[in-house]
Amino acid sequence: MVEKPSNSFPKQERICSKKLMDRLFNGRESHAMSAYPIRVIYRFETQEGGDDELPKAQVLMSVPKKCFKRAVKRNRVKRQMREAYRCNRHLLTAQVPENKSVLIAFVWLDAALYPTKEVAEKMKNLLQRISEKL
Fold first, then answer.
1. pTM (predicted TM-score)
2. What is residue 38's predicted lDDT score, i.e. its pLDDT?
């Protein structure tokens, strides 16, 4: 029987470590692409044979204060991006090999709000393009 993928978005799949953020944004192996209004910065990493198993993908969502001064709007956009990623991450995680993982940062570029459906389409497009690079 085929196992249904989990729809949760646990803390292990989020980038919280400053070290990981620096590696993602300052690393020479980082790549970027856009599907306006979302820009994605990603980096592939090989996992060493340690005992704590890292998730196949770790994600960071960012909405700059320059785009939305009000926290309510920034939070809405982050919620839309998180939900779009959570529903479509199987497009990427199914393609990631066993010994690899990917660090991803999604950055919002526009000062306008978009419908959730449009944000989900852009996120799906980006995830498919990243999985093709594997």
1. 0.90
2. 96
